[in-house]
Amino acid sequence: MPNVRGDVKAKSDRGSTIIEAKFENLPSPTTLGEQYMTYVLWTMTAKDRPVRIGELEVKDSRGSLNERTALQVLALFVTVEPYLDVSQPSNLVVLEQIVPNEVPQANTGIMAKADLLRDAYAPVGYTYEPMVVGIGQPLIFRQALNARRIAKIARAEQYAPAEYKRAESLYQFVIGTVLEQKKPGKGTLKSAVAVIREYETARAASIAQQNRIRLASP
Question: pTM higher than 0.85, yes or no?
Answer without folding.
Answer: no
